[in-house]
Amino acid sequence: MGIQNKKVIALLPMKGFSERVPNKNLKNFNGKPLYHRVLNTLLECDLIDQIIINTDGVKIKQDVQLNFNLDKVIINDRPQTIRGDFVSMNKIIEYDLNHSNAEIYLQTHSTNPLLTKQSIATGLKAYNQFLNEKKADSLFSVTKIQSRFYYKDVTPVNHNPKELIRTQDLPPIFEENSCFYFFNKKSFKDSGNKRIGLLPKMFEINSVEAIDIDTVEDFLIAESIFNIKNNNDE
């Protein structure tokens, strides 16, 4: 079971409708629907006991039922009360937590096709250790960025324009990349129903693996990199 006798459930929420990339989750990504990439990665991770797909998409549900083992992959039909573009992801997570039971939850997105099982497993082990040592209640993935940032009014964020130092020597800024979040029911509740708890830790992922598909251009870039990586691995 999971890790150190703790049940681990992965949450993979998916909308049936997407605005910027039509039918995104089912769009062909190197021969398979996009969401298959992340779902197969989760299935390949032996530390994950169960995967919950929360969806309002009829075609997504049908595709899951046709292609995956429903003993390990569970479908939650998204209620009308938490459907729509402006519903917080935390509301959807709350629903899934109320209809399942595990010691550790992982939430990820179908739009991160380059996420690896190695990063998931390493993140899970790190989170479990933090929990055991009471050093954190949650963990989320980030990308380190070292560049010169400005606010809209041209105020520098992380550097002094009068001192032109190398970008690699700048203090890093960490971007929440939404690749994954680890938490449990207690941390979620204690933080006011949020996946990032009151005592979080960050887990760094490189910028290529962390590519998130929001636009058609993102899709093309991610698919090209995926193909290059696959060809190099052969």
Give a short summary of the structure:
The protein is of the alpha/beta class and 234 residues long. The chain has helices at residues 34-44, 58-67, 89-98, 117-132, 185-190, 216-233; strands spanning 8-11, 28-29, 32-33, 50-55, 73-77, 104-108, 138-145, 173-183, 200-204. The chain has one domain: Spore Coat Polysaccharide Biosynthesis Protein SpsA, Chain A.
Task: Give an overview of the whole structure.
A 7-stranded mixed beta sheet has the order 5-4-1-6-8-7-9, sandwiched between helices. Strands 2-3 form a two-stranded antiparallel sheet. It is globular. It has a single domain, classed as Spore Coat Polysaccharide Biosynthesis Protein SpsA, Chain A. It contains 6 helices and 9 strands. The chain starts with 7 loop residues before the first strand and ends with a helix. 35% of the residues are buried. With 234 residues, it is α/β, with parallel strands linked by helices. Helices cover 30% and strands 21% of the residues.
Profile the largest sheet.
Answer: 7 strands, mixed
What does the radius of gyration come to?
Answer: 19 Å
N-end to C-end Cα span: 32 Å
CATH superfamily annotation: Spore Coat Polysaccharide Biosynthesis Protein SpsA, Chain A
CATH architecture: Alpha-Beta Complex
Number of strands: 9
Largest sheet: spatial strand order: 5-4-1-6-8-7-9
The percent range for strand residues is: 15-25%
Q: Which helices and strands appear, and what pairs or packs with what?
A:
Layout: E1 8-11, E2 28-29, E3 32-33, H1 34-44, E4 50-55, H2 58-67, E5 73-77, H3 89-98, E6 104-108, H4 117-132, E7 138-145, E8 173-183, H5 185-190, E9 200-204, H6 216-233
Parallel strand pairs: 1-4, 1-6, 4-5, 7-9
Antiparallel strand pairs: 2-3, 6-8, 7-8
